[in-house]
Amino acid sequence: DSLLWVQLALLGERPTVEIRATEHFLPKSESSHRRVDIDQGFAKFLMGKMGAATSEFVLEGTEPRPESKYYHYRADSDFRAVTAWLRGKGVQARMPLHALRKEWGSMINSEHGLKEASVALGHANIGITASTYVDSRKRLVTGVGDILGA
Questions:
Q1: Fewest CB atoms less than 10 Å from the CB: which of 18, 93, 123, 141?
Q2: How confident is the model over 123-144, as a mean pLDDT?
Q3: Residue 53 and residue 75 in contact, taking contact as beta carbons nearer than 8 Å
Q4: Element (H, E) at 116
């Protein structure tokens, strides 16, 4: 919601989004400050949007309201559209965007392990990732029966 165009590095072989403190956003912890790799197709999509941008923000919306007493989405129409899309895909969680983040972390865990998922999610502590954000889908079965001749 408060991502700025200047936080994107879209050219080159490794396009990234830089998660860092800005005038409009403060990450939760030091480990939240990081660069997140994005794929070439998404980088190309964003470059197409950048040319038509009318503000410093990646998502169009209203002006930020830092004095707000509630969480104010600047890009409320985009938030509602993504929420509706996720609901249409069967996501029934109370916070569907958070469910999407958890799914992303679970996918990274399945392919690359818990440590990589923790780093990608920007957690200061791998325990947070293990207990809250990652669904282990692999069924691990040891070969002890084979060793014992069972």
A1: 141
A2: 75
A3: no
A4: helix 114-121
Q: What percent of the chain has pLDDT over 90?
A: 54
Q: Give the Cα separation of 125 and 132 in Å (integer).
A: 11
Euclidean distance between CA atoms 54 and 31, whole angstroms: 31
Helix (H) or strand (E) holding 18: strand 16-19
Hey, what's the torsion of the CAs at 14, 20, 24, 29, to 10 degrees?
Answer: 140
H/E stretch holding 98 reads helix 96-112
d(CA 112, CA 126): 14
Token pair, residue 105, equals 């972390």
Higher pLDDT, 47 or 135: 47
More confident residue, 11 or 67: 11
